[in-house]
Amino acid sequence: MNIETLTRQFPQTAWDVHTRSVIVPHVCLLDVVYFLKTDPEFSMDYVSNVTGVDWLARKEKTKGPDGKESEIEKPGFLEVVYHFYSMREKRGPVILRCRTDDRENPMIPSITPLFRGAEFQEREIYDLYGIRFSGHPDLRRILMWDEFQDFPMRKDYQEPDDYEWEPTPHDEVLDRAKQHYAAPHP
Asked: Which H helix or E strand runs over 50?
């Protein structure tokens, strides 16, 4: 299994030596995943992990042609990370990273049509980071309640001052329990 085969097949991808992963633009994500699944050299038949990451804006030091150091501002972005394995060939992982273009309306294609096991993981990423997966068969919240307005795993998330607005059945359950135990028992 040679990653150079993948990067030659898809020249718009890039190998990141620091994270030992392939950065894949979202426009070709499904093509790359399909290639990993069907190419005999890879035969990736299992996606073990799909997760979201929120990268903050950062300053990076660079050297100019004159040798002087300067800092440039790198904008923050949201990213989805995939870990693929070949269970049949007993090899892997191949790690793909796909970045969103936009923090306000982040969108990435769903790999669920190719790997059904990604369905709940993509829902979790949508629920916690707000990344929408186009083509997902059932994209809705999985951990937070439907009325929740924010994405709590984002670095810019602001906790509410008052948690009282959280819908909960505790009051109803407590009232029923009080009535049950207050009533005489035979």
From this structure: strand 46-55
End-to-end C-alpha distance for the chain, whole angstroms = 73
What residues does 77 pair with on adjacent strands?
A: 55
Dist CA 28 CA 109 (whole Å): 9
**CATH architecture, domain defined by 3-182:** 2-Layer Sandwich (3.30)
Whats the size of the chain, residue-wise?
Answer: 186
For the CA atoms of 140, 143, 148, 151, the dihedral, rounded to the nearest 10 degrees, stands at: -90
pLDDT in tens, 5-50: 999 999 999 999 999 999 999 999 999 999 999 999 999 999 999 9
Verdict on whether the full-model pTM lies above 0.85: no
The residues with which 69 forms a beta bridge, in sequence order, are 63
Distance CA 115, CA 96 (A): 14
Query: Rounded to whole angstroms, how far apart are CA atoms 89 and 66?
Result: 50
Measure Cα distances from 150 to 36, 104, 129, 141 in Å: 34, 12, 9, 11
For the chain, the domains span: 3-182
> Which residue carries 């040679």 as its tokens?
2
| Three-state SS at 29 | helix
What's the burial of 66, exposed, middle or buried (CB within 10 Å: 0-12/13-18/19+)?
exposed
